[in-house]
Amino acid sequence: MSLIPATPEEIERLDYSAALDALREVFGNRLQTGRSAREQAGKDESFHPSLPPHGVIKVKNAEEVREIVAICARTRTPIVPHGAGTSLEGSVGAVRGGISIDFSEMNRILAVNAADFDVVVEPGVTRRQLNEHLKDQGLFFPIDPGANATIGGMTATRASGTNAVRYGTMRDNVINIEAVMADGRLIRTGKRARKSAAGYDLTRLLVGSEGTLGVFTAITLRVYPIPEAMSAAVCTFESLEGAVDSVIGIIQYGIPVARVELLDALTMKSINMYSGADFAETPTLFLEFHGSEASAREQAELAQEITAENGGGGFQWTINTEERNRLWRARHDVAWAGKLLHPKGQIWSTDVCVPISRLADCINQTRADIEESGLLAPIVGHVGDGNFHLLLLVDHDDPQEVERAQALHHRMVLRALEMDGTCTGEHGIGYGKIEFLEIEHGDAVEPMRMIKRTLDPDNILNPGKVLRGL
Amino acid sequence: MSLIPATPEEIERLDYSAALDALREVFGNRLQTGRSAREQAGKDESFHPSLPPHGVIKVKNAEEVREIVAICARTRTPIVPHGAGTSLEGSVGAVRGGISIDFSEMNRILAVNAADFDVVVEPGVTRRQLNEHLKDQGLFFPIDPGANATIGGMTATRASGTNAVRYGTMRDNVINIEAVMADGRLIRTGKRARKSAAGYDLTRLLVGSEGTLGVFTAITLRVYPIPEAMSAAVCTFESLEGAVDSVIGIIQYGIPVARVELLDALTMKSINMYSGADFAETPTLFLEFHGSEASAREQAELAQEITAENGGGGFQWTINTEERNRLWRARHDVAWAGKLLHPKGQIWSTDVCVPISRLADCINQTRADIEESGLLAPIVGHVGDGNFHLLLLVDHDDPQEVERAQALHHRMVLRALEMDGTCTGEHGIGYGKIEFLEIEHGDAVEPMRMIKRTLDPDNILNPGKVLRGL
Lengths: 470, 470
Hints:
The structure is a homodimer of 470-residue chains. Chain A is of the alpha+beta class and 470 residues long. The longest helix of chain A has 20 residues, at 399-418. Chain A has helices at 8-12, 17-27, 35-41, 62-74, 127-134, 151-157, 164-167, 170-173, 202-206, 240-252, 265-275, 293-309, 321-332, 334-339, 359-372, 399-418, 434-441, 445-455, and strands spanning 31-32, 55-58, 79-82, 99-102, 109-113, 118-121, 139-140, 174-180, 186-188, 215-222, 224-225, 229-236, 259-263, 284-291, 313-318, 346-353, 379-382, 387-394. In chain A, helix 10 (240-252) crosses helix 12. In chain A, the strands form four sheets. In chain A, strands 15-12-14-13-17-18-16 form a seven-stranded antiparallel beta sheet, with helices on both faces. A five-stranded antiparallel beta sheet of chain A has the order 5-6-10-8-9. In chain A, strands 1-2-4-3 form a four-stranded mixed beta sheet, sandwiched between helices. Chain A has four domains: 8-105, 2-Layer Sandwich (Uridine Diphospho-n-acetylenolpyruvylglucosamine Reductase, domain 2), CATH 3.30.43; 109-225, Uridine Diphospho-n-acetylenolpyruvylglucosamine Reductase, domain 3, CATH 3.30.465.10; 229-335, Alpha-Beta Plaits (2-Layer Sandwich); 342-427, Alpha-Beta Plaits. In chain A, strand 8 (174-180) and strand 9 form a beta hairpin. The first copy, chain A, is 37% helix and 20% strand. At the A-B interface, strand 9, helix 9, strand 11, helix 10 and helix 12 of A face strand 9, helix 9, strand 11, helix 10 and helix 12 of B.
């Protein structure tokens, strides 16, 4: 099983000179064709190798995007949109070559409508840039996938992260999208109204489409008031079941928990190694609560009672900002910390999502499988959503280890699907998970293909991603 | 401008005898072709006249739905799904005749997954039936459009209602859909995982598609724990602006208000007439807060401070269930109360939704327009969403009054669109608002048409709804 659909050499041989010539006429030397720019454009943050496009253009506005799409449509040249390159499933790789549209300089914040709790941004705005811009107005954008991704990329991937249990995912927080379609049409998928029952939900169709149905030129997002107070808590458990049952109890009690992260024993060990902390090396929950000061305190206290009923110990909570930040820094350092466990290992980060009632079982079976496979892989999860990540540490110079990791990964995804879960909660399909998408959706894959074919009949928009063989 | 696309006589003349013969062979006398059954099937709760189908079948399971779709596909016969018939834009009218699939007896609750906070239901389950079933388990389904609609109909219409400000709309609360597509394929749009980044969001594409893309056979919904406590409040204002600014302040403060309804002076007058209450006849907010008892109290108290800063008066709040129910009964009686203002008038209920910053302006301009038009129309709004309803009271035997009402309606919708709002926040398009959908979406209409054409090339699924002239 090769995860790579083509080699860079095979891609290089494809002839898009007509497109390159036409683009050079319009963009001059802003069309970058040097090796380094192309290699960077084709590489994401994952272990997937770079699959360089034939050319890269840093766009500045929607009109330029339209010009590129028009030329690529005329010459049947693939287009690969590129945000910050933080994807994990090869989404920016030019699996059939073509032109990478780099949005990193198309990053203006076009409007902040504070009273409406929405903002309009260009796709290249990063989430940190947006939050920096918003904070003086007492607003924030909650979706936090960890990396400092662009809003365009997060929209394309239907990203989420630690806050999704309270604030939802990109699905819930994109109000409308302006996009150039394959036929050159510039559409806006909706108005700024908070809700609408007017026609097909093209917004949600584009969210998660990974650049295969349209190229985004502006995105309207929902934002939220910065909570008056936040409290954070940490709690350890002897078993995963206790941790998961605590979270079910917390939700059942109606506590609007803002973040609830599960870190397994191996993850806690790696954090201790990395930061010199002395966390107990057992399954652990990190929690955060947002509200008025009274409410943030009450929520933490109620959560303490519920965790205690489920075998939780060492519950500590704080409303102090510094202590809270220290906790979440530990959570964010998990990827770096993991590397200490296996210095030659590269991180292969993959995620699945199951109904929460199946989560402990799914993680336990996966943990047993990891150990039988002789691999190292910390597990962290957005447990409120039933979503967890395996940080597989794999020495890519060791073909047998790679093979064992691929087999383990395959079993993990099938296990999640059997439990009525999904092959990816938030990383997307890219080209890395196409086979699993097909298993997951079965007869529903064909309607997806029909939609792709009708909206992009020549398959110029990020071909080879999400769906295969079009 | 006629709102009716065809007369019952024109529809009756269409020949679907091949379909009727084939269906009779399978369903025997369960295929109803009598006048009364057909007229009832073609009529919703609105002023739209009945547009009867040629036959009606009360289905019992997905297999029967598949058989009907197969026969109708083969004979190119329109299919109109029918839930409780509570739609307001003619959604159940058979504008091109054909077969009405009546889901009222396909109403089993297939699974309650309490730990996962989801349920699986057949489309004919009504929201009250569902909540009755759930309450012993401490769960509830929050979407409340007023009418006792079916889950299938609410999903098809992307319904919402008074709780949407806190719990979202059907868009946010449908986890997956099982549906028969026009080509006979039975698909399930997703797993039970709470979130997924796997492929195109067919769930959201079907939510709000009004029966035009697929016929639902099962729906998985998100449900919520019944809050420990609920408080309710009422507050009056001299001006609409004060009421709307209060709501913006409440959201800005991060108070997770569960319901916040705006009733204008005329609505309050009608409620007093109907129930003998003595509410002040000025713009009024009804509010509800969910949480722990401490939190439900704190939220009401904070809201009181914020409304006072915005000129609110007479703030009264309660945590007592009976008093709370009395308040919401008054809100729910608005439709009946309105009729007292104009005994010969029939209610024409229509809705638009705008960014909340434009809401007071939009309502004030609409109110002035109503008065200049010499019409009577109470206004109520789900103000947290920027969504409001006009309850136009129109004597349909007075052609001039009907004409004035249509012109007023037209201006109101265009006004909302100019304010970056939508032509319907929650009622849907049906055949009543197709022209406005076209104005609202502009170049985005064609992608909708492309999707419809590819998924239903013979246009058998609820033709004449949402999109015209296919």
